[in-house]
Amino acid sequence: MELNNDKLSLIVQRVLLEMNEKNLNKKTRDGIFNTMNEAIEAAEQAYKDLSCMTVSEREKLISSMRKAILDNAMEIADICVKETKMGRKDHKYLKMKLAAEKTPGTEILNTKAYTGDKGLTLIEMSPYGVIGSIIPSTNPAATVACNSIGMIAAGNSVVFSPHPKAMECSLTTIKILNKAIREAGGPENLITSVYKPKLEDTMAMINHPKVRMLVATGGPEIVKIALSSGKKAIGAGAGNPPVLVDDTADIKKAARDIIKGCSFDNNLPCIAEKEVIVVEKVFEFFLEEIRKIEEVYELNEDEINKLLNLVLVEKANNKFTLNKEYVGKDANVILQSIGVNVLKHIECLVCRVPKYHPFVTEELMMPILPIVRAQNFDEALEIALQAEGGNRHTAVMHSKNVDNLTKMARTINTTIFVKNAPSYAGIGFGGEGYTTFTIAGPTGEGLTNASSFTREVRCVMVDSFRII
Ligand code: NAD
Predict the structure, then answer these.
(1) CB-side exposure of 203: number of CA atoms within 13 Å?
(2) What distance in Å separates the CA atoms of residue 303 and residue 311, rounded to the nearest whole number?
(3) I want to staple 178 with a disulfide (CB 3.0 to 4.6 A). Which of 30, 109, 161, 252 is the partner?
(4) Domain Aldehyde dehydrogenase, which positions (predicted)?
(5) In terms of pTM, does the model score above 0.90?
(6) Protein residue with least CA distance to atom 6, ligand 1
């Protein structure tokens, strides 16, 4: 076996994890256990310990976690890419930084009060206890970081079920966060998981009576499993975000923004531009602007067909399954796989396709951007609706026509609707507002934050504490 630097550093990470696991007498395991049952029991104890702390003490833990994420962002980004062989280190670093800086803490938890002749009633946001959080392979570490901040800010502990293919980067992040919590005076094992996670562990976690809430961030299958559990569950599922460009858009800017959003982390984010629909009047102009971008490669018809056979496997009735081998791969690597060698660095492959081409209707998560021509705005909107597939996840539009913008926003009714910017503005990267990597369309929490991980409780005092 050839031992390059990437393989060597993965081996070192694995040995460190194994040493941690075997050292059973060691006082702390930084949250990683042999069995899911042990991980949940430890998290239950940690939740009880956290309940004894004040909210300002909780906020100190959050500050320490933020610092640890920032301090280790590059190292974690590196492990993520080497382990999953998906995405880009520079962009994964930016996602970690975003999670550290823009995930809300305890400040987002609000208490409501009703006062009147009968006294005072408070509505407070109370933790669930132990939360079971399922992590995708496409964005493992930033989701662990962001969910940990939100769930702990809300007063919970969390048991993570990472994707087996993203075990090392997820467990490394958990260990770093637990260390930061301990250093800030917090309980051990506030964040736990299992060494070598398997699908059976996910099911054990879902079914464990001490896990009070489930948060599933992933594809449709796991969201369905979590929602069928009989427990309170948040489902953050798949998207296939369309972009619509109408004839009033700043075409040059639109072309650049779309390529930036589509190629971010090799198109892994569920919010990333997956297909673009352009009205006829500006279609050729838009293509010209796209072609001017150095890092873009336009596929010809033969290359489109080769790529189709490579990345999608056709089942019956025009249904496809994704060849996961190519998810999150660099554009140059994908090109090489169809026999095209381009010497310069390519960020995005673009192709002209008919409106319901599989590249438009399937969520590829690869830096491939299909471009569709529509006769007018209404047809473009209809195509965008079909492509989005009712996920109600994310859509983007480039336009200066307020009526068109409003019509698309209302009709497509997605959780995130970005106007005149790359899609990532929708999660606070270059746009206003906080960030999250768990976007809950199916269950309606939207962009989750600490308050999504709480239950409302009511505290009533009759007659007293009334001033007026
Ligand atoms: P995936 O659904 O294959 O896996 C997600 C998680 O679910 C993993 O931890 C996996 O181990 C677990 N899982 C999947 N099937 C399971 C089963 N049958 N039993 C037990 N556990 C199971 O998804 P992925 O490929 O890792 O991630 C990509 C998908 O996630 C895309 O569809 C993307 O759009 C979506 N996603 C959504 C959000 C969001 O916030 N809405 C964020 C990131 C990713």
Answers:
(1) 4
(2) 12
(3) 30
(4) 35-433
(5) yes
(6) 136
**Any ligand 1 atom below 6 A from CB of 270:** yes
Mutate to test the pocket of ligand 1, among 80, 92, 103, 134 (most ligand atoms within 8 A of CB): 134
DSSP annotation of 444 reads S
Q: What atom of ligand 1 comes closest to residue 270's alpha carbon?
A: 34
129: Cβ contacts below 8 Å, ≥ 6 apart: 44, 47, 156, 157, 210, 212, 213
DSSP state of 316: S
Please write the tens of the pLDDT for every residue from 291-348: 999 999 999 999 999 999 999 998 877 789 999 999 999 999 999 999 999 999 999 9
Between the CA of residue 356 and those of 166, 388, 412, what are the distances in Å? 33, 12, 17
For 49-68, b where at least 16 C-beta lie within 10 A, e where not — what string?
ebeebeeeebbebbebbbeb
How many Å apart are CA 330 and CA 269, to the nearest integer?
A: 14
394 CB near ligand 1 (under 6 Å): no
Q: Beta strands 119-127 and 454-462: pairing type?
A: antiparallel
Ligand 1 atom with minimal separation from the 221 CA? 15
**Residue holding tokens 């569950």?**
233
Kindly report, residue by residue over 70-92, the tens digit of the pLDDT.
999 999 999 999 999 999 999 99
What architecture does CATH give domain 31-237+447-459?
3-Layer(aba) Sandwich (3.40)
Residue 24's pLDDT is what?
42
Domains 31-237+447-459 and 242-431 share a fold: no
The pLDDT value recorded for residue 464 is 78
Topology (CATH) of 242-431: Aldehyde Dehydrogenase; Chain A, domain 2 (3.40.309)
Q: pLDDT grade, residue 18 (50/70/90)?
A: low
Q: What are phi and psi of 197, to 5 degrees?
A: -65, 140
Using 50, 70 and 90 to split pLDDT, how confident is the model at 27? Answer: very low
> Which residue, among 256, 241, 254, has the nearest Cα to 282 in the 3D structure?
254
Determine the Cα–Cα distance for residues 335 and 329; give it in Å rounded to an integer: 10
Q: Which residue ranges make up each domain of the chain?
A: 31-237+447-459, 242-431
Q: Is the CB of 452 under 6 A from ligand 1?
A: no
